[in-house]
Every structure is written in structure tokens, then in C-alpha cells.
């Protein structure tokens, strides 16, 4: 469990951030200022998350106080120039307020994993903040990905990562950085789709004071902040044409020019780009520069969608389930054999994120110690298939199909069916539910799922 120190003077933000991190298995301490943080010994934590503007000393003072512990800076978009300055002072990264929960958690996990790698933990076993390996799976497609990462990382060439949303492109970028010669330099991650088109050039390349309306001071861009390190541009297919031209110059000449400046500056940056779109096809329609595409595509890594990783899906599901069980304090929950079959056969258009959400629902809705298909809240066949088909999926498969699971898992539905049919003539619904250790509502739902009709009481003859 990672120890994180939050330094934020606004109690509401501090409390919300603490709850978010604790739900994801981090141990959190709080401080309202640099002075309070100093009393807690910031060097005793794994990560410090600090607001930029604090009463008294600024949050950047913690960079020196906490060293070598990484400091993640929080700032508003209005203070983005100061955030980049914080990166130059040694902050590991920054997040903009109001922050997106998923983006913040991803950033925290990446920073913690990067910290672990710098402490000589092998990259392939370094853990994220949720104590799960960064990449899971040993199917042939993923073995190809691992091999490509291992060979490409030390080569210091531009890499294009392609794959659907939710397949783990940022994890690949992180592995490439960690196993490269630049591992101790910054890894700057930019989601091109999350920055307004009018701001993207300023964000990446910086600007001079007065370059445009509202440019009240000069600022350093993220490309320059990544100097001697790695720049990861996620969803690079969303870059507007002018930004594409500027990026091409960085790749060709190793130079940047701020907006409004006539001077160029040399930068030493390794670029890793990712997209779910077909850049070559976009180049034919004029939406993406063909010369930039060829500059980016020195080395390509293709990530397989989850539906093509049949050998890995259940392993990933077990890992995500364990994390959800810890988060909701429901240790010991397992997937029934029918639920495992549904997970294995589902198309998963949302990839790992969709699988994670389904398992989260299952942990919350499950009664007893097993998660059943209807607990996952997925689309057909678990909902629309006839009850007889669902019953067959639950109890009629031969044990050889999944013989490495607990025998209780294999026979639970069968036991439920036989118990209800055998005792419903002598017991009321309430008594049946009590004997089975479930609620009457759950008893009714499982009757419906398994196609077991409720026994009707014979009509009394009153004549």
C-alpha cells in the first residue's frame, strides 16, 4: 500500500482527494501548508501531491523538502505557466484543477510505478498504486508487444502506439520510458484530445508575452519541459494542422519556436505517440500530414483489443476483481462459472475499462460469496436469453471445461435448483430464503433466472 501526502489548503478539495485515493488502496495523510507538511516528514511518503498556491510558502518548496520523493503539483488552467515552471524545478508532473478522477488516478499510478522502477525494481514486475502489475497477459499478441517494447525502448527512436481506447497505450509508453536511457528524466504525458484546439500550440510549444490576447506573460511549453526526457502524445490524431507542422519541425530539426518568438531553441526529446485512429487513412483525406505520419511511424506497436485476448481475459478479470473487492471491503468474492463464461465470451467494445466497470457492479450487487452473470449487468446473453438457456449455461456444462475451479462453484446453481424443488412443498418462500441464506428478493430473481416456477398452493374447497 503506497503512502501519499496531500498538501492542500482547501479542506473540501483535500477531503475529496483523500477519499478518492483511499478507495483505491492508498494510505493518505493531509496537510494544509508547507509548514504542516514539514512536520509530517514528506520524505517518509511514496508520493506528495501539493497545490501550487498555498498560504505561506508555495507548493514548489516541497520539491526540495521531499527529495527524492516525487512531488505532483495541482494547479488551475489559469496558472499553467507556473505548473510548467514547477516541472523545471523538479516536480514529477502536474494535474489541472478541476481534475478528472480517472486522469488523476492514472497519473498517480504512473508516478508510483516510475518511482518503483527507479528504485531498481524490474519494470516487468513494478507495481502501480493499486498493487497490481502494470500489464497483465501472456497471449501471443501480448508476447509480441512485450518483445517489441524490450527491443525498442533502448533504441531512442520515435514510437507510434496503435490500439482501441482502453487497451493500455499509456502503460506501453510508460514501459518504453522506464526501460530507456531516459528513465531518470521526465516523462511528460499530454492528451491531445483533452486540450482545446485554440490552446494546444501554446500548451506544447509555449508563447511569448503579448503573442496573443491574454498572453500576459511568457510561458514554457510541454515539449521544452520534456527536454532530455520523453514526451508522450496520446490521441495524436486530434492535433490541428498548425500544431502538426510545429511538431514535424521538432522531429526533423530538434528545435522549437514559441508562439510570437523569432528565436528557436534546441530540445532533446524522445517522442512516443498513440492513437486509436488510422493515421495513414487520415493523411489521404488531408486530416493528418503524411510527412508527420512517416516521421512518427519509425517503430509501431499494435495493442490487441480485449476480445482478441481470450487467454488473458479471465486473468485480467481476476486481477480487477481482487482490486474491486479490496476497495469495497468484500474479500473472498469469486466469479461463478457462468459469470466466467460470460466474461470470456463478451465482445468488450470498451476493453479493460468496460470489464472493470462490470466487475465493480458485480462486487456491489452480489449476494453471498459468488458473482453471477446478472450481477455484472451486461447485455445479452445474460439478460435476453431464455431462462432455460441461462440455466443450461449455469449448470449443464461439463466440469472438464473449467476443472480448475472450486467444486462448490461448479455445483452451486445445481444445488439451489434441487433444494428449492425438493423443499418448496413443505416450506414458505421466507423459510426457503432463510435456509439458503439469501433474501426473498434474491430467491425470486434466481427462480426467474433458472426458470424454476414458484409452486402454487392448491385451492381450498370451501363448498
Walkthrough of the structure:
The structure is a single chain. The chain is α/β, with parallel strands linked by helices and 463 residues long. Helices cover 44% and strands 13% of the residues. The protein has 20 helices and 14 strands. It has helices spanning 11-23, 34-39, 61-66, 80-89, 101-118, 140-152, 169-178, 200-205, 222-225, 241-253, 279-284, 290-296, 310-327, 337-345, 351-365, 373-376, 387-395, 407-423, 429-436, 440-450, and strands at residues 3-7, 27-31, 47-51, 71-76, 93-97, 159-162, 187-191, 230-234, 255-256, 265-266, 270-275, 299-302, 334-335, 370-371. It has a five-stranded parallel β-sheet, sandwiched between helices. α3 (61-66) links the parallel β3 and β4 (71-76). It is globular and about 90 Å long.
Amino acid at each position: 500500500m503506497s503512502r501519499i501526502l496531500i498538501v492542500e489548503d482547501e479542506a473540501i478539495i483535500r477531503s475529496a482527494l483523500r477519499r478518492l485515493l483511499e478507495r483505491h488502496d492508498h494510505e493518505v495523510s493531509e496537510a494544509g501548508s508547507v509548514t504542516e507538511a514539514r512536520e509530517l516528514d514528506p520524505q517518509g511518503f511514496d508520493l506528495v501531491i501539493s497545490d501550487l498556491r498555498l498560504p505561506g510558502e508555495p507548493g514548489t518548496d516541497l520539491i526540495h523538502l521531499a527529495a527524492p520523493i516525487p512531488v505532483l503539483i495541482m494547479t488551475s488552467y489559469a496558472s499553467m505557466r507556473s505548473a510548467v515552471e514547477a516541472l523545471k524545478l523538479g516536480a514529477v508532473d502536474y494535474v489541472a484543477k478541476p481534475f478528472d478522477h480517472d486522469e488523476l488516478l492514472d497519473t498517480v499510478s504512473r508516478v508510483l510505478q516510475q518511482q518503483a522502477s527507479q528504485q531498481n525494481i524490474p519494470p516487468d514486475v513494478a507495481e502501480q498504486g493499486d498493487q497490481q502489475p502494470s500489464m497483465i497477459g501472456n497471449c501471443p499478441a501480448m508476447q509480441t508487444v512485450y518483445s517489441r517494447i524490450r527491443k525498442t525502448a533502448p533504441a531512442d527512436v520515435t514510437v507510434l502506439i496503435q490500439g482501441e481506447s482502453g487497451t493500455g497505450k499509456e502503460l506501453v509508453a510508460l514501459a518504453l520510458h522506464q526501460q530507456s536511457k531516459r528513465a531518470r528524466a521526465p516523462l511528460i504525458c499530454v492528451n491531445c484530445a483533452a486540450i482545446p484546439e485554440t490552446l494546444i500550440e501554446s500548451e506544447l510549444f509555449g508563447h511569448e508575452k503579448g503573442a496573443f490576447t491574454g498572453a500576459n506573460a511568457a510561458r514554457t511549453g510541454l515539449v521544452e519541459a520534456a527536454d532530455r526526457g520523453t514526451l508522450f502524445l496520446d490521441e495524436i490524431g486530434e492535433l490541428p494542422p498548425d500544431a502538426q507542422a510545429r511538431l514535424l519541425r521538432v522531429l526533423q530539426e530538434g528545435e522549437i519556436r514559441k508562439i510570437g518568438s523569432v528565436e528557436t531553441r534546441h530540445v532533446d526529446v524522445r517522442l512516443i505517440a498513440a492513437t486509436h485512429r488510422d493515421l495513414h487513412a487520415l493523411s489521404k483525406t488531408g486530416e493528418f500530414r503524411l510527412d508527420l505520419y512517416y516521421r512518427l511511424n519509425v517503430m509501431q506497436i499494435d495493442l490487441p483489443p480485449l476480445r482478441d485476448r481470450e487467454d488473458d481475459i479471465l486473468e485480467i478479470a481476476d486481477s480487477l476483481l481482487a482490486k474491486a473487492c479490496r476497495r469495497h471491503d468484500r474479500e473472498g468474492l469469486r466469479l461463478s462459472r457462468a459469470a466466467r463464461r460470460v466474461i470470456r465470451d463478451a465482445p468488450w467494445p470498451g476493453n479493460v475499462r468496460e470489464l472493470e466497470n462490470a466487475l465493480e457492479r458485480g462486487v456491489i450487487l452480489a449476494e453471498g460469496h459468488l458473482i453471477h452473470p446478472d450481477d455484472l449487468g451486461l447485455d445479452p446473453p445474460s439478460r435476453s436469453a431464455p431462462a432455460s438457456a441461462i440455466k443450461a449455461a449455469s449448470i449443464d456444462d461439463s466440469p472438464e471445461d473449467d476443472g480448475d475451479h472450486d467444486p462448490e462453484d461448479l455445483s452451486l446453481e445445481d444445488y439451489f435448483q434441487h433444494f428449492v424443488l425438493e423443499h418448496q412443498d413443505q416450506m414458505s418462500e421466507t423459510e426457503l430464503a432463510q435456509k439458503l441464506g439469501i433474501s426473498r428478493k434474491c430467491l425470486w430473481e434466481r427462480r426467474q433466472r433458472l426458470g424454476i416456477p414458484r409452486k402454487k398452493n392448491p385451492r381450498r374447497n370451501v363448498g
